[in-house]
Each structure stands twice: as structure tokens, then as C-alpha cells.
Amino acid sequence: MKHCPADGNPFDNFGVLAATRLVTAALGIAAAAILGTTQPGIGAQAGTFRLSIVSTSDYATVQQSDGTVFGGGMTGSGSILDSTGEPFTKDARIDVTCVVHGKKTAARLQLTTTCALKVGAGGDEFYVSGGRTEGDLTPGGGGTGRLTIGGGTGKFAGVGGTCDYEATYRSASEGSTAAACSWERP
């Protein structure tokens, strides 16, 4: 039999410490499951940043019986507005090059974009892809969507995450994008 005090209660002395640790661990696991969050692994890095970009686009369009198909390039520049820290540095300049394609019907928009974002004077890039299914492409319009961060070069190698963004169109070929991003590097 394990060490127990004279009264036979296994939760006295050493048992209380073990039971406390077990309950604490169970509560931590339950909280993570309920909240859907986990801590980055030991040695992992994580953070958040916000960025703003002004861009111009040059899309070709083809009218179809059920809508308009579009595709082309988008370029622009902007900056990181705020950040919890490296590798995304507050006030760093961003130069953006994207390929955009999709289809707009009377019922919906399907827009897909893939971009390389060159950050700062060092020229390291991070890559995003994703899109949106709401809103439009007309002047004064826009919409919200989500991008996935898929690594990059230099200090962005191995970085993953997501960016929720809002696009606004000033004209048929000019727009702006504001994004709030979270990232992690295992």
C-alpha cells in the first residue's frame, strides 16, 4: 500500500499535492479545449500585427452567361501599423505583388489572391493566399476576407498564420486593404 497517514486518508500529505496537480492539469486541458486555444510549443514564437496597403490592379475580364470572370495583377505598398514584435516590425514598409482571379455572379463573388509581401530594406518576404466570397469590386465597394500566411524568406521562414482583411475600392483599379493578422512559428 502507498504511504498513507494513520487515519488512512490518501489525500493527506503527499496525496493532497498529487490531487491538486491532477485537478489543475484537468482544468487547464478543459479550458484549452473550451477556448480552442493552445500555447505555442517550447521555443515557438507567436504574435499579432496589423497592416495597411494601398494598391492598383490591372484585371482582364471575360463576360460569361452566368457572370464575369476576372484575373490579373495587383501591386501596392503600405506599412505595418502595429506589432507585438519581430519578425513583423512596426512602421516597416511593405511592397506587395499579387495575382488575383475570380468570378462575380449576381448571387456571389469568388475572389482568390496569392501575394508576396516584401518587408523593409532587407527585402525578406512573406507569402499569403486566400480570398473572399462577399462584397464586390465596384468603386466605393469592397468586402472582407481571410488570408493564410504561408512562410517566406529570411526572417519570415517557417511563419504561418492568418489575416482577416477588409478591402475597399476607390476606383475600378485602385483600392486599399487593412488586415489584422496572427502568426506563429513552431
- Number of structural units classed as domains: 2
| CATH C-level category of the largest domain | Mainly Beta
Rounded to an integer in angstroms, the radius of gyration calculated over CA atoms is: 24 Å
Mean pLDDT: 83
Low-confidence stretches: 1-5, 9-40
The major beta sheet can be summarized as: 8 strands, antiparallel, barrel
Class from helix and strand fractions = mainly beta
* Order of neighbouring strands in the sheet with most strands: 1-2-3-4-5-6-7-8
Tell me what the CATH architecture of the largest domain is. Beta Barrel
Characterize the overall form: elongated
- The CATH superfamily of the largest domain is SO1590-like
Helix content: 10-25%
Quaternary structure of the protein: single chain
Give the distance, in angstroms, between the N- and C-terminal Cα atoms: 44 Å
Structure, explained:
The structure is a single chain. This protein has one helix at 14-35, and strands at 45-64, 67-83, 93-104, 109-119, 124-132, 142-152, 160-169, 174-185. The chain is mainly beta and 186 residues long. It has two domains: 1-38, no CATH class; 45-185, Beta Barrel (AOC barrel-like), CATH 2.40.350. An eight-stranded antiparallel β-barrel has the order 1-2-3-4-5-6-7-8. The protein is elongated. Mean pLDDT is 83; it is low at 1-5 and 9-40.
